[in-house]
C-alpha cells in the first residue's frame, strides 16, 4: 500500500462557487419561495400536513402549538422551532392572509405589531377551508410523497390545493439573491378568472383583469394606480400605490375629525406606531397647526385612528398632507417569484393561473384514476357475488365437500374438483365449469349468510348498477377534457359559494395628493439661551419689557427672523445650524428646550463659544482665534451651507477654538493669555483665509501659556476689561505688531 498522502487538488474558487450555488438553491427551493402549485413554502406545507396527520381538524378540539411545532420539527422540518411557530402564527393572522389556514386560539399577535404569545400558551387547529380545499383527497393518491430529511417518514411534495392559493394568500420571502412579494387577492375573483382561462386558454391578461380587478388586501385600503396594474400582472413586477381610507366626521360646534378606518397593507405592525409618531412630529414641527389631538381607538373590530381638528381646519388639505408626509400612502413592491417545475421563475398573472389549472387537471386525473380502480374492483366483487347467489346451492356443496380453503378456492377459480366430495356427478361437472376471479373467490369465501336474503340480493344488484354508473362517469371524466373541466369548475364554484367574500380593497385611478403648506408669517424674534443650554425664542416686545432680567439670565441673546437659521460655533471647530422654527416660542418665563435636541450639538463633548444669525453673518467677516494663538479672518459667505454641521475651521493637534467674533477693518485686536500677556495690533494685520485654513500666529506664547481671551474695540473708544483683580484699559495699551510676545500685566494683590 502506498504511503503517499491521498490529496485531491482543486481550484478553491471553483469549490466555493459550487458550494455557494448549492446553498443558494437549497434556500430558494427548500425554504424561502412558495410552490406555484399550492402557494405554500415548505415550512407551511409541512406544518399543515403534520396537523392533518395529528388529526387536529376544524371540528375537533384545539391542540397546543408546542405539540404541533415539536412534531413538525422532529418529523419534517429540522430548522428550529422559531421558523415553524412564526409560519404557524402568520397562517392564523387574518390581517396578513386573504384566507386564514390555521384557526388560532389565544394570543396570536395584533395588527399593531404585538407579537404572539409563546407556543406553550397558544393552541391551534386547521380551518375548514384548509381541511376541505388544501388537504382533501390525500387518501386518493393525488400527489407524490417523498422521504423526509432522515428518510424515516414520508412527506408530501406538494399539497392537493384545489383553490388558487398563491394568488389568494400571496407570499413574502427572501432567498439568496432573490425575493418574492405577491399581494393577496379576492378568492371569488380569482376563481372567476380561473374559470375564464379554462374556457378560453388564449385569454389575455387584460381580459383576465375583468375578473381580477387588482389586489385585495385584508386591511382594505385604496389602490390608486389602477392603470399600472396591467403591466404589473403581465411582467410579474412593479409597484402598487396604496392609501389608507380616511373619513371626515362632523362634530358639535362646527368642529371636524379625520377618522382612519383602513390602512395600507404595508403599514401593519410597527408601521401604525410609526404613523402616529410621524403625525406628532408634523404637529411639533409646526407643519400643521390644525390637529388638536390624536388617538388610536383601534380594536378587534377594526382600525380607528382619530385626528381631532380645530375649528375651521381644511380637512381635505390635511388629508393630502397625511398621504404626502406619512405612510398613510405607501408603495407595495410586487415581485411574483415562485418555484415552477423545480426552479424559481418570475410569473405573470396568466402564467400563475396556467400552472394552477394544469395542476388541477393533474390532481383530477390521479383522483379519478384511483376512484375508477376502486369502482372496478368493487364491480368485480359484486359481479362475483351476484353470480354466486345464482348458484349458491352448488357453492355450498363445494364448501361442504372441501377439506381445506385452498381446495375450495382452487375449485372456484380454476374448476379443480379432485379433492372435493360432491353429491352427484352433475354437481362435479357444474363445479368444473366455475371460473371466478381470485378477488371474487375471496369475497365468496368471506360472504356472510345474511347476504342470501332476498332484499339483500336486490340491494346488491342495485349497488352494482350504481357502481357501473360510477365507472362510466369516471371513464368519461378521464377520457373527455370537457367533462373533467366541468368537474373542476363545479368544485371551484362550491369553494366560491362556501368561502367567497366581498372585496375589501378599492381599486381606482386617483390624482396625486397635493398638499399646500401654509406659509409661515415672517416676523422678528429674539433668541435666548441660558448658561444651562436651554433655548427658546420670544417676541421682541416681550424681550424689551424684560430686558434687564433677560440680559442677566441668558448667556446668548440674538435678534433674528423666525424663518431663519442660527449658527453655533464650538470649541472643537464645528459649526452647527439650528432652525429657529424648531425652537419653542412663548412666554418669557418658559424654560425652553436643550439646544442638543434641535441640533447636532452635544453638550457633553463640546462647548459653544458663539451664536449668531446666519443671514446677518453673510455680510460680515469673522475673526477666529485658537488657544495656541492662531488667528484668521473668514468671510461669512463661506458658512452659507445647507448641512446641519460643518467643520468651521482647521485646528492643530490638541488645539481648541477660544473665540469667534464679527470684526471690521478699523477695529483693534487685543489678545490676552492666561499668564497675563496682552498684545494689541490693528485688525488689518490679520489676513483673510478660507475656513479650511489653520490661520497665522497672532501672539508668541510663553511655555505652558495659552490664549484665553480676544477683545475688539474702536480706536479712540475707552474699553476696560478685568484681568484677575486688576482693571486693564485696552485703548491705553501700546500698539504693536502681530506675532509679538505682548506686554505682561501683573494682577493686583
What would you say this structure looks like, in words?
With 749 residues, the chain is of the alpha+beta class. The chain folds into four domains: 33-161, Topoisomerase II, domain 5 (Alpha-Beta Complex), CATH 3.90.199.10; 245-327, 2-Layer Sandwich (Gyrase A, domain 2); 355-498, Topoisomerase, domain 3 (Orthogonal Bundle); 524-744, Neuraminidase (6 Propeller). Strands 14-9-8-17 form a four-stranded mixed sheet. It has a four-stranded antiparallel sheet with strand order 10-11-13-12, covered by helices on one side. It has a four-stranded antiparallel sheet with strand order 20-18-19-23. Helix 3 packs across helix 4 (81-92) and helix 14 (405-414) packs across helix 16. The longest helix is centred in the middle third of the chain and has 42 residues, at 349-390.
Report a brief summary of the structure.
The protein is built from 21 helices and 35 strands. With 749 residues, it is α+β, with helices and mostly antiparallel strands. A hairpin with a 6-residue loop joins strand 4 (145-147) and strand 5 (154-156).
Amino acid at each position: 500500500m502506498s504511503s503517499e498522502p491521498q490529496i485531491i487538488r482543486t481550484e478553491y474558487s471553483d469549490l466555493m462557487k459550487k458550494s455557494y450555488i448549492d446553498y443558494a438553491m437549497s434556500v430558494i427551493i427548500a425554504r424561502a419561495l412558495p410552490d406555484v402549485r399550492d402557494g405554500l413554502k415548505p415550512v407551511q406545507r409541512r406544518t399543515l400536513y403534520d396537523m392533518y396527520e395529528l388529526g387536529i381538524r376544524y371540528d375537533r378540539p384545539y391542540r397546543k402549538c408546542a405539540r404541533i411545532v415539536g412534531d413538525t420539527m422532529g418529523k419534517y422540518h429540522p430548522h428550529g422551532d422559531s421558523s415553524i411557530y412564526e409560519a404557524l402564527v402568520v397562517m392564523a393572522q387574518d390581517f396578513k392572509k386573504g384566507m386564514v389556514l390555521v384557526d388560532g386560539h389565544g394570543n396570536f399577535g395584533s395588527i399593531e405589531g404585538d407579537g404572539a404569545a409563546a407556543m406553550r400558551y397558544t393552541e391551534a387547529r386547521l380551518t375548514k377551508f384548509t381541511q376541505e380545499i388544501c388537504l382533501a383527497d390525500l387518501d386518493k393518491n393525488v400527489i407524490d410523497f417523498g422521504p423526509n430529511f432522515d428518510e424515516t417518514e414520508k412527506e408530501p411534495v406538494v399539497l392537493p390545493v384545489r383553490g388558487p392559493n398563491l394568488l389568494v394568500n400571496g407570499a413574502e420571502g427572501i432567498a439568496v439573491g432573490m425575493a418574492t412579494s405577491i399581494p393577496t387577492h379576492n378568492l371569488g375573483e380569482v376563481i372567476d378568472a380561473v374559470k375564464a382561462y379554462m374556457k378560453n386558454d388564449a385569454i389575455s391578461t387584460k381580459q383576465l383583469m375583468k375578473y381580477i380587478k387588482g389586489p385585495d388586501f385584508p386591511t382594505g385600503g385604496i389602490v390608486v394606480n389602477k392603470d399600472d396594474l396591467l403591466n404589473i400582472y403581465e411582467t410579474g413586477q412593479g409597484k402598487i400605490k396604496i392609501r389608507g381610507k380616511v373619513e371626515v366626521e362632523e362634530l358639535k360646534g362646527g368642529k371636524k375629525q379625520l377618522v382612519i378606518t383602513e390602512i395600507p397593507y404595508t403599514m401593519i405592525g410597527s408601521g401604525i406606531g410609526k404613523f402616529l409618531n410621524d403625525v406628532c412630529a408634523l404637529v411639533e414641527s409646526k407643519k400643521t397647526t390644525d390637529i388638536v389631538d390624536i388617538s388610536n381607538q383601534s380594536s378587534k373590530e377594526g382600525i380607528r385612528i382619530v385626528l381631532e381638528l380645530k375649528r375651521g381646519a381644511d380637512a381635505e388639505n390635511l388629508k393630502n398632507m397625511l398621504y404626502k408626509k406619512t405612510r398613510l400612502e405607501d408603495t407595495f413592491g410586487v415581485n411574483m417569484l415562485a418555484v415552477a417545475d423545480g426552479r424559481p421563475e418570475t410569473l405573470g398573472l396568466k402564467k400563475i393561473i396556467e400552472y394552477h389549472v394544469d395542476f388541477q387537471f393533474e390532481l383530477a386525473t390521479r383522483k379519478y384514476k384511483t376512484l375508477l380502480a376502486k369502482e372496478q374492483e368493487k364491480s368485480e366483487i359484486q359481479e362475483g357475488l351476484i353470480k354466486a347467489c345464482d348458484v349458491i346451492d352448488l357453492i355450498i356443496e363445494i364448501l361442504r365437500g372441501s377439506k381445506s380453503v385452498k381446495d375450495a378456492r382452487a375449485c372456484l377459480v380454476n374448476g379443480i374438483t379432485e379433492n372435493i366430495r360432491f353429491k352427484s356427478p352433475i354437481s362435479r361437472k357444474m363445479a368444473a365449469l366455475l371460473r371466478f376471479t381470485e378477488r371474487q373467490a375471496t369475497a365468496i369465501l368471506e360472504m356472510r349468510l345474511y347476504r342470501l336474503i332476498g332484499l339483500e340480493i336486490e340491494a346488491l344488484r342495485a349497488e352494482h348498477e350504481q357502481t357501473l354508473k360510477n365507472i362510466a362517469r369516471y371513464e368519461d371524466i378521464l377520457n373527455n377534457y370537457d367533462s373533467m373541466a366541468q368537474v373542476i369548475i363545479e368544485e371551484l364554484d362550491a369553494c366560491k359559494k362556501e368561502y367567497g367574500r366581498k372585496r375589501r380593497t378599492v381599486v381606482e385611478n386617483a390624482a396625486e395628493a397635493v398638499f399646500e403648506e401654509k406659509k409661515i408669517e415672517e416676523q422678528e424674534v429674539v433668541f435666548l439661551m441660558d448658561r444651562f443650554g436651554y433655548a427658546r425664542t420670544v417676541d421682541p416686545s416681550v424681550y424689551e419689557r424684560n430686558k434687564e432680567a433677560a440680559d442677566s439670565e441668558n448667556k446668548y441673546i440674538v435678534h433674528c427672523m423666525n424663518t431663519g437659521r442660527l449658527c453655533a460655533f464650538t470649541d472643537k471647530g464645528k459649526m452647527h445650524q439650528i432652525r429657529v422654527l424648531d425652537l419653542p416660542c412663548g412666554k418669557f418665563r418658559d424654560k425652553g428646550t436643550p439646544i442638543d435636541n434641535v441640533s447636532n450639538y452635544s453638550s457633553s463633548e463640546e462647548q459653544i463659544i458663539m451664536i449668531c444669525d446666519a443671514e446677518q453673518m453673510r455680510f460680515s467677516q469673522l475673526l477666529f482665534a485658537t488657544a495656541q494663538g492662531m488667528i484668521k479672518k473668514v468671510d461669512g459667505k463661506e458658512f452659507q451651507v445647507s448641512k446641519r454641521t460643518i467643520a468651521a475651521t482647521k485646528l492643530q493637534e490638541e488645539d481648541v477654538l477660544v473665540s469667534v467674533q464679527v470684526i471690521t477693518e478699523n477695529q483693534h485686536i487685543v489678545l490676552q493669555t492666561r499668564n497675563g500677556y496682552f498684545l494689541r495690533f490693528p485688525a488689518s494685520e490679520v489676513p483673510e483665509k478660507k475656513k479650511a485654513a489653520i490661520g497665522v500666529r497672532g501672539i508668541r506664547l510663553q511655555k505652558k501659556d495659552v490664549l484665553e481671551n480676544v477683545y475688539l474695540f474702536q480706536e479712540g473708544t475707552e474699553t476696560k476689561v478685568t484681568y484677575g483683580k486688576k482693571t486693564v484699559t485696552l485703548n491705553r495699551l501700546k500698539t504693536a505688531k502681530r506675532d509679538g510676545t505682548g506686554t505682561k500685566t501683573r494682577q493686583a494683590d
